[in-house]
Write a structure and sequence with these properties.
Its main location: endoplasmic reticulum. Heme binds at residue 440. Strand 10 (420-421) and strand 11 (424-425) form a beta hairpin. The chain has 18 helices and 13 strands. It is 50% helix and 10% strand. The chain is globular, with a radius of gyration of 24 Å. The protein has 2 domains: 1-81, no CATH class; 119-353 and 393-497, Cytochrome p450. It has helices at residues 4-25, 46-51, 53-64, 87-91, 100-111, 119-130, 133-152, 169-186, 192-217, 223-239, 242-245, 253-264, 269-284, 287-300, 302-316, 338-351, 386-391, 443-460, and strands at residues 35-36, 67-72, 75-80, 97-98, 165-168, 356-360, 364-367, 373-376, 381-384, 420-421, 424-425, 461-465, 492-497. It is α+β, with helices and mostly antiparallel strands. The strands form 4 sheets. The protein has a 6-stranded mixed sheet. A 3-stranded antiparallel sheet has the order 5-13-12. The protein has a two-stranded antiparallel ribbon with strand order 7-8.
């Protein structure tokens, strides 16, 4: 029996060696990008990458140039840092680069949902049908009702609503947008107070899952955290179950359309529950953090908030509450806010850090704008990180780390879309929503709900930072590559409801 220990150890070494051998023996081939495998076999640069993706890629870019391949946990990723060379990758007429398989593996791991063939196209079709045009207007109206309920309460403003209240700005924005979005998409019962309590409980669970999310994706959780993630997943599957939704009214047509599709495809109800969790995350994981950055930038730049307030008054009129004790709003005004549009676009430029990934399905020739060609191996990954290569490029965006509320405005007040790199007009000058097949299908609704919330805040409320001289909080390095960044620490602010006419 004693001999089993060494025998099993030897067997394990053989298996590990067999699995790692291809990566250990790999060398840069002819016409391939510079290869940097790191000093640790198989892991490569995984630790440095996961610790601070932004700093790691900046270092690799300086070391290797616009194209380089790095080893991360046994996989190889080729990063392209020249935005003038993005178009062939995003369009991919050769059908050599696949996004869907990567996305399917991710949602199975994170949400427990096993995608079916055609799901990706169905979600985009549902979003085109129900998150644009007249359908978007209906959803905006539902969102306004939900924001009124969350921000003013089921019985309207309390007697002390006009007094100053103090909160963390990140928590304030995230909780309000989440609760209002959750109620808008998944409906109400007949008890509004109970609905608010449920939405608050859901947010507490959602926020905890959100904190664990980056390390969960990278499989870096401790034993107790793995158990906690499993428990949180179960809570969301239960709270968002199809059975519970049957008891609610006002479920959005967007969610209803997708669930109907799944039912017609014979998807099990338990899998539909997991699908709802995925949709909740996709729709509500970024809007709150974006609004945090937007309001913080406005509060730190008096000229910006002044311009937004003047525009809001011009297109919406004076702020007032209607007889139902809810906010009044002209939804047509959302198409007439170029200043706010520029503020939001600038906020996304500074705050959005998505990673665009494609799995190489067959040996691929990468053609750069310079004319240089590189061979990319089948099974590798091609990656873009626009935050570093586009949003922070001083050639495209002068003084890139500075918030300029009118950066996306022409002198005549129209939207600015002409940006240049190396003297050439660039199409991909801002990429907060991804691009191509991986572009966010719900971006139009996300933009609308964020604009409505920001306009309500600047019109109906007085706001100020507790410490006006505080520096901008640094970005939490764990959030790089996961959509909208988050601050490393909370920011305290005060707010109060203005007296209504």
């Amino acid at each position: 029996m004693v001999l089993w220990g060494p025998a099993l150890g030897a067997l394990l070494l053989i298996i590990v060696g067999y699995l790692c051998l291809p990566t250990l023996l790999r060398h840069r081939g002819p016409q391939e990008p510079p290869l940097d495998k790191g000093s640790v076999p198989w892991l490569g640069h995984a630790v440095a990458f996961r610790k601070n993706m932004f700093e790691f890629l900046k270092e690799m870019w300086a070391k290797h140039g616009d194209v380089f391949t790095v080893q991360l946990g046994g996989q190889y990723f080729t990063f392209i840092m020249d935005p003038l060379s993005f178009s062939p990758i995003i369009k991919d007429t050769q059908k050599a680069l696949d996004f869907v398989k990567y996305a399917e593996n991710l949602v199975l791991k994170v949400f427990g949902y096993q995608p079916m063939e055609g799901d990706h196209q169905m979600i985009h079709l549902a979003s085109t049908k129900h998150l644009m045009g007249h359908s978007l207007e209906d959803l905006n109206a539902a969102m306004l009702d939900s924001l009124s309920l969350v921000m003013l309460g089921p019985k309207g403003p309390s007697l002390d609503a006009g007094s100053w209240h103090e909160d963390g700005l990140f928590h304030f924005c995230y909780s309000i947008l989440f609760k209002a979005g959750f109620l808008t998409l998944f409906g109400y019962t007949k008890n509004k107070e109970q609905d608010l309590l449920e939405a608050e409980e859901m947010f507490v669970k959602f926020r905890r899952f959100d904190v664990l999310f980056p390390r969960f994706v990278y499989s870096l959780l401790g034993p107790r955290e793995w158990v906690e993630v499993g428990q949180l997943q179960h809570v969301f599957h239960q709270r968002l179950s199809v059975e519970q939704n049957l008891e609610k009214d006002g479920i959005s047509n967007w969610v209803g359309y997708m669930l109907q599709y799944l039912r017609e495809k014979g998807t099990a109800s338990v899998m539909q529950d997991k699908f709802n969790f995925m949709i909740l995350w996709a729709s509500q994981g970024n809007t709150g953090p974006t609004c945090f950055w937007a309001l913080l930038f406005l509060l730190k730049h008096p000229e910006a908030i002044k311009a937004v307030r003047e525009e809001a008054t011009q297109v919406l009129g004076e702020a007032r509450l209607d007889v139902k004790l809810s906010f009044t709003f002209k939804f047509s005004a959302l198409k007439c806010t170029p200043v706010l549009d520029s503020v939001l676009e600038e906020t996304l430029r500074l705050g959005a850090s998505p990673t665009l990934l494609r799995v190489v399905q067959k040996d691929y020739v990468l053609k750069m704008a310079s004319g240089q060609e590189y061979q990319i191996r089948r099974g590798d990954n091609v990656a873009l990180f626009p935050y570093l290569s586009v949003h922070m490029d001083p050639d495209i965006h002068p003084e890139p780390t500075t918030f300029k509320y009118d950066r996306f405005l022409n002198p005549d007040g129209t939207r600015k879309v002409d940006f240049y790199k190396s003297g050439k007009k660039i199409h991909h000058y801002s990429m907060p929503w991804g691009s191509g097949v991986s572009i966010c299908p719900g971006r139009f609704f996300a933009i609308s709900e964020m604009k409505i919330f920001i306009l309500l805040m600047v019109m109906y409320f007085d706001m100020e930072l507790v410490d006006p001289d505080m520096p901008m909080p640094p970005i939490d390095p764990r959030r790089w590559g996961f959509g909208i960044t988050q601050p490393s620490h909370e920011v305290c602010f005060r707010y109060r409801l203005r007296p209504m006419q």
